[in-house]
Amino acid sequence: MNGLVFGYLIVMAVLEVLLIAQCVLTCRKKPYFYKSLLRLLLIAIVTSITYFVFLIVRNESVAKWCGVLYFIGLDWLTFQAVVFSMEYCKANSEKYKPLIPALPIVVTTLDCIMMIATNAAGNLINVTVNTEYTGHVWLVKWLWPYFIHAGICYIHMMFSIVILLWKTKKVSSLYRSRYHTVAIAFSLGILLNAVCYLLKFPIDLSILQYTIASMLIIIFSIYIIPRKIRNNTVSNVIAHMNSGICCFDNDGQNAFCNSSFREIMNRIHATYKNAEDVKKLFPEAITRNNGESLECDRQYDVNGKTIYLKQSLVSIRDKKDMFVGSFFEIVDQTEEIAARQRELYKATHDSLTGLYNRETFFTKVKEILEEDPDTRRYLICSDIKDFKLINDLFGVEVGDAVLRKQVQLMKSESTDDELLASRITGDKFALVIPEDRFDHDLIMRNIVRMQALTDGSMYKMHIYVGVYEILDATENVQTMCDKARIAIESIKGDYNTHIAYYDGKLREELIYEKTVMSEFENALECGQFCMYLQPQVHDDGKINSAEALVRWAHPTNGLIPPGKYIPILEKTGLVHKLDMYIWEKAIKKIADWKVLGINDMQISVNISTNDFYHIDIYKVLTGLVEKYDIDVNLINLEITESALMKNYEENIATIDQLKNYGFKIEIDDFGSGYSSLNMLKDIRADVLKIDMLFLRETENKIRSRKILKSIIDMSKALGMPIIIEGVETDEQLSYLKEMKCDMYQGYYYSRPIPVNEFEEKYLSL
């Protein structure tokens, strides 16, 4: 064996060891293409071993079969190169699977079978000893089947190279080297094989090239190129980061800074020239060998605009904890902070007026009272009467303008940068100001300015203000607002008064109201409410009807008149329970009289506004009539005009149902509402009731008596009897009889009296 072959074999042996080592490393690293690369390496090892045997074997027959196995190895080696290239380039997705059909596998397999068959027939290769070299070297004479095999291998390799070059067109220049390197290695293998064949070189050096190419693929694809790509990627990422990055070595010298860093520094430092100027921010930390890391938030005023920056210096250490450098990072948080401030503003402020919302206002007031409890302050609440009408009459835009105007006027009552005020809900506002800034006259002037917004229209705006002096800084803010609202409620309906102050009297009224509400249910269950009757007298003196009234026989407070609790029950929506209680008392009493043979005494009961909202009046009354089996004509229903004003059409329909059932309908307090004549047209009432207050509320008694006479004449024309309430004197009775009224009710005849007293006096029971 000559020195050339011996040297070649030595090199091949070393490469085999390296290939085996790289197989192990590839299995440990496991890149995404490691399976196909591992197959490529294993086939390369087997192929090179068969060629190694081919070179050293002395038997001609064995040499021929080793040559065949070598060719078969090349077949599968080049085919596996195609598979590896596609996986390495990630071209083996569903989209590109048609590029690897079963045909190449079949062709490769058939080529292997053909080589085995032709070699068995002696038609593949001939080997003879090469006499040009000293020693033993087989000289191969290629026969025609070899050229078919060679064509298939060349096609495989060319296809692999095409795939790699195609990939380079699809990726950034940053990643092209990873594909160029493999393509060059494959191309050198083809070129070397062709040179060996054309020069008839006794040793095929291409297998050596393929082995070296396999190692280069591993070295470049797993180690060198990924590291280079990783470094380039990191550099590109840093260069395109929104954060400003500036890197320093262990001596504090600038190594790199991105464009964002330069841009931010130019914004905040007019004298900034280069990255070295950043040392002014952390001069010691950058040059200090211990590599201390620091972080802080700073803000800069630039041309009247505040810029918020998060600045951090991070030290970098190696595996031995030695300081190797640092990098300085600047993050512009201006937009982020502005966005947070906008979200916070939305969460704490009213979008229309810019004032605090309800929850934030309560929190702010509580905080300021805790911080400074000794300063005396006032809490002021405002309310625009029937504000919904402004939106309905003038439009929502005008309504919003009214609210914004009110905020503008409220700001005139405070000198704080941020007004401690809130839009509690709708048109209701609240304001807290110190006592020394409270100005009653200023509030009145602002109310007048607000009312001027609707001047020139038929609508007159009414604004009410409630003032509560904060005496206890620990008191719940909601309770303070409630007290200011109580002050407002005390003047609602009074168009001459606009400002009310919460005082001890209102407090007592509030306590009394809560007491009534807390005791009402139990009083109803215990029967503390008693029915009183006030007789209704005909002009001939006959009494066959009475009005049912209620008194509260309190176990400790004695008899409580209705004026002390009825308004509270109406305000809180509880009066319907008391009404149902009296209805049943009245109907049951008529049933009791029926048993005693009294079948002509009628009782009138009242229906309030709340009854229409909370109960089915028709169902309750008809149910009671049927329960106690009484004549429906003996129970009369008194309904005030105000009870029908809301949901007018629905309430009229309910009255019609009751009328059709047989109840007598009485219109109570006729003339006190706004649509009396219209109601007479719509309601099929049986009786009109007029209070004597109708005559007392004017100094022109002659004029009022003429109006009363006209009403009486009109009612007679409609076939409706008149009942005059509140008759107290002979004079009143005299001129009422002259007007030919039908019935009278009042203290002149009798006060409301207990039922047993009424029975004894008028029914002789």
Description of the structure:
The chain is α/β, with parallel strands linked by helices and 765 residues long. Helix content is 53%, strand content 18%. The chain has 27 helices and 22 strands. The chain has an eight-stranded mixed beta barrel, surrounded by four helices. It has a five-stranded antiparallel β-sheet with strand order 4-3-7-6-5. A five-stranded mixed β-sheet has the order 9-10-8-11-12, with helices on both faces. Strand 6 and strand 7 (323-332) form a beta hairpin. Helix 6 runs antiparallel to helix 7 and helix 18 (575-595) runs parallel beside helix 20 (617-628). The longest helix is centred in the N-terminal third of the chain and has 35 residues, at 206-240. It is elongated. The chain starts with a helix and ends with a helix. The mean pLDDT is 79.
Helical content band: 40-55%
Approximate strand percentage: 15-25%
Detail the poorly predicted runs.
none
Q: Largest beta sheet, briefly?
A: 8 strands, mixed, barrel
Strands across the major sheet, in which order?
13-14-16-17-18-19-20-21
Q: Which shape, going by the Cα principal axes? A: elongated
Averaged pLDDT? 79
- The separation of the N and C termini measures 153 Å
Tally of DSSP β-strands: 22
Enumerate how many helices there are, as a single number. 27
Radius of gyration: 53 Å
Q: Quickly give the structural class.
A: alpha/beta
Offer a quick outline of the entry.
By secondary structure, the chain is α/β, with parallel strands linked by helices.
Annotate the secondary structure layout:
Blueprint: H1 3-29, H2 34-56, H3 60-88, H4 102-120, E1 125-129, E2 138-142, H5 144-170, H6 177-198, H7 206-240, E3 244-249, E4 254-257, H8 259-268, H9 283-287, E5 294-302, E6 305-317, E7 323-332, H10 334-348, H11 358-371, E8 377-384, H12 387-394, H13 396-411, E9 421-425, E10 428-434, H14 440-451, E11 463-470, H15 477-489, E12 499-501, H16 504-525, E13 529-538, E14 543-554, E15 558-560, H17 566-572, H18 575-595, E16 602-607, H19 609-614, H20 617-628, E17 635-640, H21 642-645, H22 648-661, E18 664-668, H23 676-682, E19 687-691, H24 693-696, H25 701-717, E20 722-725, H26 730-738, E21 743-745, E22 753-754, H27 755-762
Parallel strand pairs: 11-12, 14-16, 16-17, 17-18, 18-19, 19-20, 20-21
Antiparallel strand pairs: 1-2, 3-4, 3-7, 5-6, 6-7, 8-10, 8-11, 9-10, 13-14, 13-21, 13-22, 14-15
